[in-house]
Amino acid sequence: MKIGFLGLGNMGGPMALNLLKAGHQLSVFDLVAASVKHLVEAGASAVGSPAEMAKGDCEVIITMLPASQHVKAVYLGEDGLLAHVKAGVLLIDSSTIDPISAREVAGAAVKHGNPMLDAPVSGGTGGAAAGTLTFMIGGEQADFDRAQPILAAMGKNIVYCGGAGNGQVAKVANNMLLGISMIGAAEAMNLGVSLGMDAKVLAGIINTSSGRCWSTDTYNPFPGVIETAPASRGYTGGFGTDLMLKDLGLATEAAKQARQPVMLGAAAQQIYQTFSQQGNGGLDFSAIIKLYSKQEG
Amino acid sequence: MKIGFLGLGNMGGPMALNLLKAGHQLSVFDLVAASVKHLVEAGASAVGSPAEMAKGDCEVIITMLPASQHVKAVYLGEDGLLAHVKAGVLLIDSSTIDPISAREVAGAAVKHGNPMLDAPVSGGTGGAAAGTLTFMIGGEQADFDRAQPILAAMGKNIVYCGGAGNGQVAKVANNMLLGISMIGAAEAMNLGVSLGMDAKVLAGIINTSSGRCWSTDTYNPFPGVIETAPASRGYTGGFGTDLMLKDLGLATEAAKQARQPVMLGAAAQQIYQTFSQQGNGGLDFSAIIKLYSKQEG
Amino acid sequence: MKIGFLGLGNMGGPMALNLLKAGHQLSVFDLVAASVKHLVEAGASAVGSPAEMAKGDCEVIITMLPASQHVKAVYLGEDGLLAHVKAGVLLIDSSTIDPISAREVAGAAVKHGNPMLDAPVSGGTGGAAAGTLTFMIGGEQADFDRAQPILAAMGKNIVYCGGAGNGQVAKVANNMLLGISMIGAAEAMNLGVSLGMDAKVLAGIINTSSGRCWSTDTYNPFPGVIETAPASRGYTGGFGTDLMLKDLGLATEAAKQARQPVMLGAAAQQIYQTFSQQGNGGLDFSAIIKLYSKQEG
Amino acid sequence: MKIGFLGLGNMGGPMALNLLKAGHQLSVFDLVAASVKHLVEAGASAVGSPAEMAKGDCEVIITMLPASQHVKAVYLGEDGLLAHVKAGVLLIDSSTIDPISAREVAGAAVKHGNPMLDAPVSGGTGGAAAGTLTFMIGGEQADFDRAQPILAAMGKNIVYCGGAGNGQVAKVANNMLLGISMIGAAEAMNLGVSLGMDAKVLAGIINTSSGRCWSTDTYNPFPGVIETAPASRGYTGGFGTDLMLKDLGLATEAAKQARQPVMLGAAAQQIYQTFSQQGNGGLDFSAIIKLYSKQEG
Q: Any idea where the 6-phosphogluconate dehydrogenase NADP-binding domain is (chains A, B, C, D) (predicted)?
């Protein structure tokens, strides 16, 4: 299939490579020349602008951009995709942005005659490279069915979440809960250990009890409890604190627009912000347990 | 075996019954005559005071009391258990109290020549009746081994947590995390639904993603998502808000003594307190989602 | 002086009237015809659009709009003020918006040859009618000096806060602290009274001690403590909960952009949001004390 | 007058000295010999135990102790004050403890025939030395009138707060609000400065606006804003973070017993606890602003 891919960063780059490997013809664009070069060497053809991509003969265009202002600019800008793309081309935005903006862009696309899906992912750069991402999809069921085999080249779980924007809703809701659970796990583990318990014994009990969560049984923030977790390798790799902070920012913004209180969600955002301001934004988000640990004098 | 059982309330009553059913000889005490009568009719013999029980020939004495002041009074009071009990009798306290008090009482017992275990339970009145409680045990390993077959008549999981007080530590740490996760689940579910998602679809996604926790996959607070959860029967039964509030009070108190910050733990305590003050202390704790729901005018 | 006034709502309407009373010639615009009519009857002349106002001969144009998207549209829109206004005309935006947006608009104005001030107010509709508002001004000192006599017709305190956007910074910082202090006052008053103290005695002690703040000595949230405060008249009038919520939304948004943690500011936002969601958004913000009060069964 | 003084630490020592200077005869006790020696050199006579003091001929006994367990031991212990003191001797406890314990001790005293006042102070060691403390008094009005001239030798403001325990209530309520306001002030000042405002200009605006509080106009946490505040001398002296933490612990404990939510009070406690755990417990509590400041790499 002829596919356009716009945004070849840490996530978009390996995702595009997996599409090439699956045998698709790829037309790519990014502002960073080196990123484009890497894909061209792997067999993609480069275009000079979103407008040029839109004017081409892609059947599907996928975008992977940092934030909602970039998504709006690329789709809705004067010389953007919607100004030039043929009706019927399927548009898929894999950026993580707020649901309201996602719906605004999807509405404009549909009005222009283009089916559109929001398709944010989870799984990190590791999942992007391995083609094991989870896609959370919002849009029409028929468009989801059409996109499914394409996305399957890049991900393992392709989940339909309902109408436009719902992919983003699912992602911010899940990640807000994740951000809260991880801090809760850090507090519970540190409390138990400071009161004299062995960390592995405590984790074992929690993991067979009602406190059980992904943050304790799969990604425990206490060093040494789970050998494969970032906590056991100095909090390197994984899902960075500043990325969690971005997602919590989207969640509280969406909550504000929906006039929905999220007391722990907002508290979690501020706690990670405090930790990031102390210079830890690049560590895996489970490193938040360090904010709760006694500092050596 | 000859066992004394002190405290025959909502939890202690059915636990004592299960010991009788297992063939043990039971000597019981409670301030409430009706509670004693119920056990006597089932085959137990009644004593008139903790002192009388201590002076008897029980090999093991089990206590199940509301709070640390009762535990201290019964064990350490002028006419309490330790003033009269023979050395060597195994003492098991199943009350949920703060770890510091548990260690204080255990220390006094050991000094007096009595092995002691703290053995708080989870599983609620349903688990007490069915004999499926989880016991979290702190104390010496040898005493744990001795107690294990007795406790097995009342519970399904008998978990050794390490030295004295560690049963209480495990319980407050687990329940603090549970209290936080449930509020996080309530916020995430309500945020997603208020942004237009179907509750069951959202729960399905979270339960296969990193936000997964017992509060979403087993005890989801959104009505109708899990048919067997209290949320699907008007938040009746289950684990009451005021009981969760008690456990969070123990957790933050223990954290204060350990000089350990628990930001979300303390926030959770205040959120349940707000909900309880609005008259909802008797509802299952997952009803906290109602604090986050739009009130009809 | 010939002045344009754009935005004649609850605040803008009475402010414009005070300019008329001070002898200025007024050209006005609003989307709501009744608001315009009211001003025209008082002596103003109406124009049909921002563009028409910009093309006229106003020496100064003042805007008073609900939110940053309106400010951006009116100033930066294709047919907005900056597309048509003569260089040198002084632009004053009295809307309360986030500092970043204020700086963006001011930057565009200056580039276009127009001095611009951000001039948000405090004092409410009462202060707008009485001409006793406080203006917090960001921009060049010389432009502040030029604006000062005009603003003096509408306000009592005209405070220079430094460069562009600083009027907005001062307002969000002050109002965030106000929102926090009021909740703190509500908690302290309710705690003291629930522990048996007389509310007036407690307020008297706090007001001569280190807990003293505007929220206790001038605007105490406990009914009956200060006769002139909204608390003593059913929380009517004053500064609405939803307006406080808007300002806290601006504060936490600005903090997010500055990567600055505001833990209590974010908590305050969520607490007012909870109260608003329960149907109390129209009450004075000091009514937040009701969220902390026992509900009658 | 013949006065007994029990507890000669950082606060009690200088307070006792001021009683001597005012011409009273002083009988003193402390576990630390050096503290007693200092007072004896200044003219006091030493006794060997609380019991000996109680058996003596003091007309008034004043206690100044670290925490409620010490107060209970000294008053209610087997060999404590109430076991030996003559009926009619006025008892004054200046310790800062929780209101419930204060009422328990006062109730026992009254039952024994001794009028008792709770009389916690604010003003710190500086105020204790200068004789300018504020006393917050709970108990009978007649006893307050009797104590007033004695306390006037140690303090400037002697405030009657109502029945037994109300002195403690007033202190915890005031200090909880203080702890909240100071964090609010820290967040507002840091937010404003990080957004580009001058700290002194911002403080000036807040101090004439609705955000005004003792923490901004008298004790501003931003360095250089108020020359006499601890912030302008490296956060030395003043009121230590760990003392604020103790008072917030009393406030949240009292709130728990009263079933009264204190969301920001509990958040403040955790924030100071986090700061203390990072090694800053000895700094003045206004140093909390450092938790909100960017750390140098």
A: 2-162
Q: What is the CATH number of the domain that holds D265?
A: 1.10.1040.10
Residue D69's Cβ-side half-sphere holds a number of Cα atoms within 13 Å equal to: 0
Task: Name the residue among B278, B291, B295 with its Cβ closest to that of C279.
Answer: B295
CB A207 within 8 A of CB A217: yes
Find the helix or strand (DSSP H, E) in which A95 lies.
Answer: none
Please indicate whether residue A246 is annotated as part of the active site. Answer: no
CB pair distance less than 8 Å for C274 and B297: no
Residues 140-199 of D with CB under 8 A from A: none
Contact (CB<8Å) D174/C209 = yes
User: Is the Cβ of D289 closer than 8 Å to some Cβ of chain C?
Assistant: no
B78 touches chain D (CB under 8 A): no
Mutation choice for D interface testing from A263, A273, A275, A278 by most D CBs within 10 A: A278
Residue C8 and residue C150 share a domain = yes
Cα–Cα distance, A92 to A7 (Å, whole number): 12
pTM for the full model? Answer: 0.95
Nearest CA in chain B to C267: B267
Residue after which a domain boundary falls, among B145, B164, B183: B164
Into how many domains does chain A fold? 2
Question: Is B112 exposed, middle or buried (CB count within 10 Å of its CB: 0-12, 13-18, 19+)?
Answer: middle
- At A296, the pLDDT band (50, 70, 90 cuts) reads low
C191 and C114 co-located in one domain: no
Residue D103: what pLDDT?
97
Q: Are B249 and D256 a contacting pair at CB < 8 A?
A: yes
Looking at residues C125-130, what average pLDDT do you find? 91
Is the pLDDT assigned to residue D297 strictly greater than 50? no
D264-292 confidence digits (pLDDT tens):
999 999 999 999 999 999 999 999 999 99
Whether D233 shows a pLDDT value over 50: the answer reads yes
Q: How confident is the model at residue B67 (pLDDT cuts 50, 70, 90)?
A: very high
pLDDT score of C124 more than 90: no
Residue A273 touches partner D, C-beta closer than 8 Å: no
φ/ψ of residue D25, rounded to 5: -85, 130
Same domain, A119 and A266: no
Is the Cβ–Cβ distance between C95 and C63 less than 8 Å?
yes
Residues of C annotated catalytic, as ranges: 171
Q: What is the pLDDT of residue C223?
A: 97
Chain B residues touching residue C291 (CB < 8 angstroms): 274
DSSP secondary structure string for all residues of chain D: -EEEEE--STTHHHHHHHHHHTT-EEEEE-SSHHHHHHHHHTT-EE-SSHHHHHHS--SEEEE--SSHHHHHHHHHSTTSGGGTPPTT-EEEE-S---HHHHHHHHHHHHHTT--EEE--EESHHHHHHHT-EEEEEBS-HHHHHHHHHHHTTTEEEEEE--STTHHHHHHHHHHHHHHHHHHHHHHHHHHHHHTT--HHHHHHHHHTSTT-BHHHHTS-SSTTSSTTSGGGGTT-SSSBHHHHHHHHHHHHHHHHHTT---HHHHHHHHHHHHHIIIIITTSBGGGGGGGGSPPP-
Question: How many angstroms separate the CA atoms of A170 and A121, rounded?
Answer: 10
Q: What is the mean pLDDT of residues B83-102?
A: 96
Q: How confident is the model at residue A237 (pLDDT cuts 50, 70, 90)?
A: confident
Q: How much is the average pLDDT of B128-147?
A: 96
